[in-house]
Structures are given as structure tokens and as C-alpha cells.
Amino acid sequence: MPEASKPAAVLSARHEPGPLGKDNLLSAFEAGLEPLCLVLSLWGAAIYFEGALPASYLILSVLVFAVTFPGTPRLNSSWWQLLGDVFLSWIWTAALLLLTGIATGYLKEFSHPALWAWLGLAPLSQLVGHAMLRFCAPYLVQLQGPPRRAIIVGMNDQGVALASRVEDTPYSRIEFAGFFDDRDLKRLDASTDYRMIGRLKELPAYVRNHNIQLIYLSLPMASQPRILQVLDELKDTTASIFFVPDMFITDLIQGRTGSVCGMPVISVCETPFTGSSGVIKRLSDIVLASLILLLISPVLMGVALAVKLTSPGPVVFRQRRYGLDGKEIVVYKFRSMTVTEDGAKVQQATKNDSRITPLGAILRKTSIDELPQFINVLQGRMSIVGPRPHAVAHNEMYRKLIKGYMVRHKVKPGITGWAQVNGYRGETDTLEKMQGRIDYDLDYLRNWTLRLDLYIILRTIRLVAKDQQAY
């Protein structure tokens, strides 16, 4: 198999991502709270009794952090439950450390008064930390933006239980809109006060028109044909989809198990950039884009001057494209044509296109016209690697012709992508070519790793000089 056509999964070799729902700021603070409190209280006791922080205490603090990280989420616990859980957890941790110290003889390296003080300070510091987190939690939630709107498909026991947990869980950042179900109201759980929005046939339009970001399918296995039909119709949206309870009956995009407010779910269609993966992706974009812009700044100024002097019109062409979650963004390119089309109908560039300027032909052939998009990367609108953004007019056309087309918008668009290094760079003059591009885009979503991104960047550098398909 040629290197360029290897499946993305072969190049990924990735570890499974963490549980769902652990990718927000509040969860990060919860994960580090208890380990950090234990380490800081240990340092405080050491400095007070030893007058310094000996190496033995630093080694112990590393061990403590490794044993207790990540901390247990306790925001939803009552104060009495929190008190009991913290002390019980600390008793087990302290006993484990004490037995290890006795067995290894390492205990003699520590001041006994310091250790006794730490035994008392540690749980108290954890309780103080939890109190401070509860005070700050509403502000941390606000920093993450507005809540995500959610609906549940299927008003059965599991669906109602999930709705109850979402409503009763503070700081979940989920705004529950209501249920969709085809059954007659007499057959449904009439004891609930939750809103019935409509029937399944109305679901796709409602999701698109009301900014629904989360969909939970609580349908029984016996409804498999109906589930497949619902999933098929939802492929024209950018909502994240989850099963309640677990079942595997369809092609999954970043499928993984997890929980929402304590209820088990399985993702059907989700972005790969959650939790630490999202941080890694964004940091790599910022670092690489900054370095590249610094290196190519003379080229950018020279090309801008050449475009201005060789043809009338703006130097930089701004065009509306669809970005993350299908929202419109403005993408920059050096102008390579005599026109700047951005309307309801946009004609793709073709071979020997009369609209392309002589300089523009060189810029497009070498992909130099795309260089201003590194500014889009720093703005957070784009990524260096991802599905290539299409003009809004093209999106509206192809989303009706290709199932799953809009799923590619679960991630930010890229300057280059998996499809481009596998022969789909340039004009897509047939539906089959666009289908091939979308297939590679979805393959990228299923198998993303930083290693795959770096591989695509290196492949792009090699291909730009010799690729004859872009015009």
C-alpha cells in the first residue's frame, strides 16, 4: 500500500481518550484539587518543623500526587457526605503510605512531629479546598461560555432518569430543552413535567433551527431500524450524539463510553478534541503557526506587493466559510483571481480558468495563496490540519447530496488535511470526488492523533512542489 493511502488508523496508534464529561475547566480543578491540597499541606508541615523542604519530602510529595491523582469529584455531595468521604479516603491513603515507609525503612528520613502535623492538616486542607471550589464553581462555569442545549429522543425510563439527573446536577453546563418521541402521549410517562417537543420526523429541523448541541438517544434495541433512520437524518447537523444505554449499531465518529451526570452513555458522533486532546491540538496550532508566520513574513510582504502591483483589487481575499459546529467564519487568502466571489453561487476554479491572474496561477500552484490562513489559525478560526473549508454556497449544495457531510464540521477547518495528501487537493468537479474527500475527512476525525497531524504536515510539504491538481 502506498504511504499516502495508508488508513489514518495505522498512523494513529493512539490511546483511548478519557471519559466523557471530563473536558471542562471545572472538572480539571476537581481532578487536581485533592492531590494539590495534600502536597501543599505536606510542604507546609515540612517547612514549619524542618525549616526547609528536604529532598525526602519532595520525593514523598511526588508519590502522594501520583497515588491520589485524579481527585474524586465531590461537588454534588452534601457537606456531611463530603466530610465522611474525605476522612475515609485520607485514612486509606495515609495507611498505605505509612506501611510503605515502614517496609522500605524510608520512614526514618522524616520528622515525626512533621508527619503527625501532616496527618491532621491533610484532610482539613482538602475540606478547605472543596469549600473554595464550591464558592468559585459558578464563576468557573461562566468562564466556559453558555450552557449546551440538549434534547432526549425517547421518553422512557432511561430518558426520564437522564433528564432528572441533568436537572438535578449543578454545574453540568447542559440546558435540557425537552423530549422527542413518536408514541402517543397516553403511552408515555405522564407523571413527568418534562416538555414533549415533537415527533422524530421533526427532530432534524428542530436541531438545526434551535442550536441543539447534544442529542441523547434513549431508544430500545427493538427500535434498531428507527434508530438508524434517526441517525441518518441527523447527519446533516453538527450536534454531538450519544446512546443511552450502550449499543453499537452504526459507524461511530470518536465512539467511546462515558457518563453524563452519572448516567452511562456511548458517543456516536463527537469531536476528537475533548479534554487534553483539545489542549494539545490548540497549543500545537499556536506554536507552529507562530513559528511559520515568523519565518515566512518576508514572503508574505513580497507576495502582497506583487498582487497589488499586477492586478486591480484587494490583496487579501476574504470569503465566508463554515467553521467549527457549522458556524460561519471569514477565511483569508491572497487574491489569485480577477473576481472575489462570495455569494449564493460560487464557481470552483477549473483548469485554464480565465478568472485566474498570471500571478494567481503561480500562487495557487504552490499554495502560497493559502499562507494568510495561518493568521486564521492564531485567531482560533482554523487549525493547521483539518478538513478544508468550502465556500458557504458549496456547503449548502453538498450537504444535501452527501450523507454525513456536515459531520466534518465537528472540528475546525484546516489549511491542509488528510484528504489533500491523499489525492483530493484542488477541484472537485464530480460528486464522486467530493464523496472521496468527505470519506477521508471523516477518517481523520475517527483516528486523530498529534502524530497524524505531523505526518500530514510533512506530506503536504512534499506534495506542494509537485502536485499538479490545484488550479
How would you explain this protein's 3D organization?
With 471 residues, the chain is of the alpha/beta class. 47% of the residues lie in helices and 12% in strands. The protein folds into three domains: 25-143, no CATH class; 148-269, 3-Layer(aba) Sandwich (Rossmann fold), CATH 3.40.50; 276-464, no CATH class. The protein has a seven-stranded mixed beta sheet. Strands 8-9 form a two-stranded antiparallel sheet. Strand 10 (383-385), helix 12 (392-398) and strand 11 form a beta-alpha-beta unit. Helix 2 runs antiparallel to helix 3 (55-68), helix 2 runs antiparallel to helix 5 and helix 9 runs antiparallel to helix 11.
Average predicted confidence as pLDDT: 80
H/E topology pattern: HHHHHEHEEHEHEEEHEEHHEHEHH
Q: Structural class of the secondary structure composition? A: alpha/beta
Shape: flat
* Count of individual domains: 3
Count all strands and give the number.
11
* Helix percent band: 40-55%
Please report which band the strand proportion falls in: under 5%, 5-15%, 15-25%, 25-35%, 35-45% or over 45%: 5-15%
Largest sheet: 7 strands, mixed
Uncertain regions spanning at least 5 consecutive residues: 1-5, 13-23, 246-250
